[in-house]
Amino acid sequence: MVFAWIRRLFKRHPEDSEATSPTATTKQARTKRAHEQARSDEIDEALKRDRFLFKDRKVVLVLGQEAAGKSTFMWQAKKYSERTTGVSRSGENLHSPHRSRPGSAGSAGASSSNRSKHSNSSGTGKVHLSRWVAEISFAARLQQRGTTMHTTLVRVRRKTGTAQQRKWLHLFGCAEALLYVVDLSCYDEWADVPETDETMVHSLLLSESLKCLSTIESHAPRDARLFGCLRLAARTVPHTRKPATSPLLACRCACLSEQIIVLNKVDLFRDKLAKIPLAVCFPEYEQPAGDLSVDVEVASAVEYVAQLFMSQVHSPSGMPERRVHALCMNVLDTGQLGAQFQMLGEVLYQERIRRVLAE
Ligand SMILES: Nc1nc2c(ncn2[C@@H]2O[C@H](COP(=O)(O)OP(=O)(O)OP(=O)(O)O)[C@@H](O)[C@H]2O)c(=O)[nH]1
């Protein structure tokens, strides 16, 4: 009796009946669609401006799997450039990746408000791309050449959404190089990736990153301006099977002749190798025999992974020969980064010389 009365009470509750009614569902769907449309329109507007600002600019497109360290790499490149040139670009539209980490919510909020404030202009008076794209000016001092190499590193922010990221694709056709960041330490992690619309396949995350790079590579030059997005439905770690969802971005830029593969998180890779040998996940890997030092083991494993990624890069017929370079780093180790950034500057410098000679 009491239960029947309670049930009736809940049934009659006006909010409850509205929430479950079909009209409420339609209303919600309509609001969601309107919100998405508004976002899409906002992005289209931003894109118009970005298209203008991108004209004749020298940019390096930064891509890579989720949490590979793209933002950290760009942040460190920014700091290095500021040291190199002595110019502090306070208004650049890249926020510190460290600030957005859990536990520092206060500073993350401050950072986002600063970002929107500075996304259009900076202390240096330079006009920046929209808030959907992160960009930093990169400058590397080339000691032997007695000159400084300048370019801009760009990446489409993850919050833009995979479908919307495609909209920037045609801008990246003009990039002078592609920089692909790989998280070395994820070699023993697994991902459930969609194989077809309905089926999922359980695959090693590093292999997926490899496949992603090969997707970029395998497209014909006329498809150079297309963007492909692959969403990892779930990322799972063996043993714990803990899911963590996020998108993985891939881009097809077949016209780019310079490709730089950044093998990142070598510090974590080194620690992990002592516990889980690379051959456990990649049985084709032949570990060097004998009683070797940890450094040699790590170098050999890094070399193997570098070869795997570099072998994905092919020169499409009729296109200039594509050059690929691998940089192994720990982007948190500021002490070692100077040499790596100089190497990056040198690669880009040589590419510019080649382009000038080819014209
Ligand atoms: N130990 C170590 N941690 C790193 C390294 N590089 C990046 N990280 C950490 O990895 C995490 C993810 O780095 P992000 O730079 O945010 O990665 P991202 O590729 O920009 O991530 P998304 O925007 O999600 O695609 C951060 O907590 C970084 O501090 C590294 O070389 N070594």
TrEMBL record:
Would you say which domain of life the source belongs to? Eukaryota
Q: Where is the composition biased (Polar residues)?
A: 84-93
Q: Which UniProt keywords apply?
A: GTP-binding, Metal-binding, Nucleotide-binding, Transducer
Give the region (Disordered) as residue ranges. Answer: 14-42, 84-126
Return the Low complexity bias intervals.
102-123
Q: Which SUPFAM superfamilies match?
A: P-loop containing nucleoside triphosphate hydrolases
Q: Which PANTHER family match?
A: GTP-BINDING PROTEIN ALPHA SUBUNIT, GUANINE NUCLEOTIDE-BINDING PROTEIN ALPHA-5 SUBUNIT
Listed name of the protein: Uncharacterized protein
Q: What is the lineage of its organism?
A: Eukaryota, Fungi, Dikarya, Basidiomycota, Agaricomycotina
